[in-house]
Proteasome subunit beta
Amino acid sequence: MAAHQVAHRIAEENQRTLNPTCTGTSVVAVTFDGGVAIVADRVASYGKTARYKGVSRLYRLNSSTLIGFGGDHADFQFIQNLIYRRAHDYKAMCGDPDAELSPMAVHSYLTALLYYRRSRMNPLWNTLVVVGTQPDDEGVKKPFIGIVTLKGVAYHPKYVATGLGAMLIQQSLETEFRKHQATYGAETKLTKDEAVGLLRKAMELVYYHDCLAHSEYEIGVVTTEDAAVLPPEELVGNWAMAETNCNYE
């Protein structure tokens, strides 16, 4: 093989994805007393076009863990495959077909994976939200939220909004939490119904302001008993405000 052909092949092998293709937008998650609730809409956009509708962006791994994603849909499918294999290997290692990875273990694995890929200058174009119930040293399950960005940055908040929602509704979530604590006490947590209601309100705000958001969304709830993704819901919206925002006549 000629030298120029070798150089051309090496250049091809070193090419990287510079931009994601079909993407999902914001994911929102909040903790409540005894669990975590998470929400994401059901569309994968190609640029500004809603290319694929009815796409679930919440992945139920097991009875204690859900994963929501924003960013490239194909990259998350790749990540799903890796997580499935890790879960299978863990069951084989434990010798127990019912053994489950904890949400903290999944979050740690994804942090290492995304950091490794970005260090190789070949990132997975996703922001991942891992939610679940994590056993403490005494075996008591407590709410857990873990975030991993495409740069491998990871942290554990009590509530979070990713994507454009980080700018649109992060402050709203903090305001609601502070209002609740001021009324009921700093140690009092939201109830499940309050958390789900807060997520519905958050998705309405995202839908009004984010041109990539879609009216159909689904909510996932993790409690100490199980993890489940609820049936899809549809936003109706109130666009009367458009007359004042856009000077319509």
Observations:
- The chain has a mean pLDDT of 87.
- The longest helix spans residues 73-94.
